[in-house]
Each structure stands twice: as structure tokens, then as C-alpha cells.
Predict the 3D structure of the following.
Amino acid sequence: MQEELIKRAKELLADGTVARVLGWKAGDLPYNPEPSYFENEDQLKNFVYNGFCGANLSKYMIEASKLEGKTLVFLKPCDTYSFNQLIKEHRVDREKAFIIGVGCKGKLSIEKIREQGIKGIESITGAEMTDDAETLTIQTIYGEKTCTYASAMLGRCHVCKGKEHQVYDELIGESKDTKDADRFAEVEKIEAMSPEERFAFFQNELSKCIRCNACRNVCPACSCRKCVFDSTKFDSAQKANVDDFEEKMFHIIRAFHVAGRCTDCGECSRVCPQGIPLHLFNRKFIKDIDKFYGEYQAGEDTDSKAPLTNFTFDDVEPSIVGERG
Amino acid sequence: MYKIAKSNLPALFRAIAETKELYLPIRRAGQVNFGPWSEDAEVDVETLKTVKSPKDVFFPQSENLYSCEREGKDIKIEPQALQDQEFVVFGMKACDIKGVEVLDKVFLADPIDTFYAARRDHGIIVAMACHEPEESCFCKVFGVDCADPEKSAADVAVWMLGDDLIWKAITEKGEALTKAVESLLENADADSDKLEEEKNNIRAIVEKLPYSNLSLEGWGGDKLEEKFNSPKWEELYKPCLACGTCTFVCPTCQCYDIKDYDTGHGVQRYRCWDSCMYSDFTMMAHGNNRTSQMQRFRQRFMHKLVYFPANNDGMYSCVGCGRCVEKCPSSLNIVKVIKSMGGEQ
């Protein structure tokens, strides 16, 4: 698939359809490709598309929309939900994007591989998109190791939203539905806890927060030009690590702000250096919105009215909060 | 030289903690970071790298400097007490100790940072050799020998050797700590051959690491103009999310901001780590002198690889711990910068 993507990118650059390509550049380790712009055929030599290209490129399109000419962007099925949502919020310009929907068979997490005790990694086979490998074979300084593809997948891929791209100009490559878990199972587990247990759970997780703001900066729904937490007039600096604030405020405020707009792309949890399952907050909101306002998936379209910014006489009364305890 | 069975480490930690605060790697909600020992803390000395470096122990991410309280017509100023009790940091790796040496250059130079100095004076460092270095490590490039923490600025050096932990005091402080826990240690002079073998094994692994032969050619204190004006920065910074992950997991990043917190009846003046990646970094009354993310991104690497060596006799302020390599959400890191702007490809 990678060769096909490069070939098409070269064609679109050559015939002037696009001015640049937004994709992934091969890293210097087997698992660290980075989001990158390519402006000519020569640069495309470093283009890569494999299991480690988890980064959602939708948000980069906010800046790319301001550039001269069209940008060719490669979006995986789940990334297209974010792009649609950004169109809806007038943050990206659809006319400035040439979207190639790329096939996806689930994206990999190096953390999940490390958690299995695999270290000193020299090479990884099975992460390419060209075969149907179910196993990753990993050469390490400490000998050859293997693990299943599924065991190394990002958490979000286990609740995959499906193989369909929601917005695209062209499609290249087959996708695989990697869903093998219920989307709301983790949320239900937390709902079943007592309030004390739930508080302890989140306190334990959120106290690890180092205020790096990676979750906010990667989030396609966090697209404010200036975040309230970056204001120098704000009492609690965006960078001060104060347990109480992270545990009770920052992440909760962010979850409220993106409620109804979060597509559940899972980037927040992917990038958290401390492995905090931040997606749980957003998914709880999604579950509640589904229940109270009818099923809704942000990013499925670009013109429907969102449940939290729309009024209907069937809307649930605010007292529901008190009633459900 | 002494040893203690790994299975007996909880007793060692308990014994140290009886008289001193003890900080060591603790697993919490799946992640290992340095934290205070307690009876129910899950100690993890097997994981090679903590998420954050142990620099917090000497230079906490947030700390109060003083507080002001209104009392009638007066204002009472209460300075924050300085560290005055000895404490132990167990399990620091050689790279992180080199990181502390970098911090020393900044905080112990005139004007001395009294908060930092008090912690350095009272801290006892027990350094641990890296039994199994990983592919993101490149400490060798900065002259660190992770096989032999005895050569570092530690007070005690320890090695994991089979079922045992080898213990060797280096400094007077280290001797005193050894004496305090002597009843738990046994003589290990007979193990010195095995220890040499372990050191050689570690060094052999280091040779095999992909970044171990990274070249710093083209970097250094005299490369200011050339590097600052390189067109490469425009290309390199592009994927950067402007988050602070690299700066907050880094053992040498030392920038901080000072702020006031309005308590309602007074003011708490505190300082917290700053990040050159953030939009308000070095914000002044006239505005900000770095207005683009490219400039902020460039600042981080210029500081580590050009400005710092220029001001500190050639000492780089990167120690090759590899945390940024592992943690950057966009897979950017200092190695990619070193390589693409001068070093070995």
C-alpha cells in the first residue's frame, strides 16, 4: 500500500493538483515515524505508511488550510471523523484538502510492546501494510521476540469505529475492522464503582499528570486559537504541576469543553506520557449524550445539528443530573 | 563492597526510611516515577527508565518560595523553609546523575539557588547501574558510563547481579549510609570478578545500541551563527505539537517561571518548571521575544547543544537518557535534530 500512496502523491504533485503532501516520514527507529510535509518527489523517498503511523493528521490541516494551494492529506477511517468535525466548526477548509482515505488494519503502540517486556528493539517485521501478518517479529539486543498484532494495538483500535471513511476524494488500500471489545465496557466498569472508588481511581490516574498539555495540543477538538489555560492572567499557570488542579479541574474542564464534539479518536490517550486513560472522560460524555439525546457520532457528517448546541422539546431536563445521583 | 539479596530489599528500604526520607522508583497506575517510599508503595527497581527523570527530588516541578498574609494593616511574609534533613534517592541511573551535574552548573553558580543547594547538600544519591540498556539510550555519546555509576557524582553505587544487589560506598555520605544499614549487608569482596563481568556485559550491550555512535560533530559552543541561522529548523519543527513532554521528562531542562497565586487573603509566590515549547515562555512586559513555534523549538536544541556548552566549558546539557525519544507524541527528538543538522546520518 505504501508504494501506491507514494505513486499517487507523486502524480498529484506533478500535475499540480496539490502543492504539498501531508503524511508520515520514516523515523530512525523501527517505530517512530513522524507527521511530515513533502513538497517534491525526492522528499517522498522518506514517506512511510505502516502500523506505527497512528498520528491523526486532521488537526495539522488547520494550519495547512492557511497555505497557498491544496494539501494532499492521508486520513485513516477514524481520522476522517475528526476532519469532518473540523469542517463543521469552520476550522479547516475542505477546498484546501485533497483527501486520500488510507486503509488501516489497526495501529500499533510501542508502549503496548514494551509492556510485554520487549526491549532493546532493533527491528520489527509485521508492522507493514503489505501483508496480513498477525504476528510481530521483533529483533532485539536481547534476542528475537514475538507478540500478536492485536496485543500491540492502541487501545482505541479495539473499539474501532469501522472501515468506512467519512470524507475523502479517493480511497487507497483495504481496511480491517479491528473491533473486539464493547466501546462502553470500560465506562460501565467505572459507572459500577461506588463514588469513593471512582474518585480514588481517577485521583490515582490523574495525579500522574505532568501538565505537558500533550492531550490538549494533539486533540482535534481543542482547536481554540488561544486556550484559556494559556492565559497569563489565569491564576493557575498552565504549566504548574499542582495535584489538586489536575485531579479535579484541568482534565474535567477539557472533557466538558469537547463534549458533543469529541469523535473519540483516542489521540489524548495515545500521546499521554504517563499513560492516563483520558479517553474515558470523553467516552462517558458520549455515552450520556447517546442516552439523553439519542445516538450521535461527532464527525459522521458536516451539517447535522449537534445535540449540545441544539434545542428540542424532547431534550432531557437538567434535573436528570440530580435524579441519577 | 557489600551485597544484599534482592528479596531482602524491602527490609533495606524500611531501614533507610526509619531515619531518612527515601525516594525511589514507584509504580503507580501502571507508570514508574520517583516518589517517596511508604510501606504500601509498589517499588519497581527493574524498570530501566522512570517516565519523569528524578530531577524533581532536587528541583520540584512546582514549589512555594514564600507566602504573604495580610494581618490587619501589616503583611506577614513567611519564607518557605529550606530542606534541612538528610534524604536518600535510591536507584538513580548514571545519565540522570549527569543530569544533576548539569543542574549544578546552573543552580550552584553565583547567585546560588538556596532551595536547590539545600536539597543537594542533604541528598544522598544511591546510583544504580543499567543492567539492560535500551535502544533509546545514548548516554555514551555524552561520556556517561552506565555500567559503572561509581564514576558518577553518586554517594553509593549499586548493581543488580543475579539474585543480589551489590553495594559500594563512594563518598563519606555514602559510607555513613552504609554504616546505618550495615546489619542488612554482607561482605561481597568475593563477587568482584562477577561484578567486572557484569560491567563488561553492559558495555558490550551499549556498543550495540543504535544511537551509541551518534556524532556530535558540527555542534558545540562555537557553532552559534551557523546553527541558529540554519534553514533546517523550518522543516524540523513542523510536526511539533508545542506540548511540554520533552521538557518535563528531561533530566536537564532547568527553566522555570515564578508566579503569584492569590489565596484570597494573601499571596503564595511559587515557581514551576517552564517549557520553551509554551507560548508564554519568557514572556515579558513588552511581549514575547520568540513569536513562532519554530523559534521556540530551535531554542530547546540550541540551548542544549550550543548555548550551554558555550557557557560551561563545552559541557552539553543533554545526557542521552532517551526519554524524549520514547515520549514525544510526534516522534521528534534531540537525536533526529543532532543527525539532521550535522551529526552522523
About this structure: Chain A touches chain B through 47 residues (CB under 8 Å).
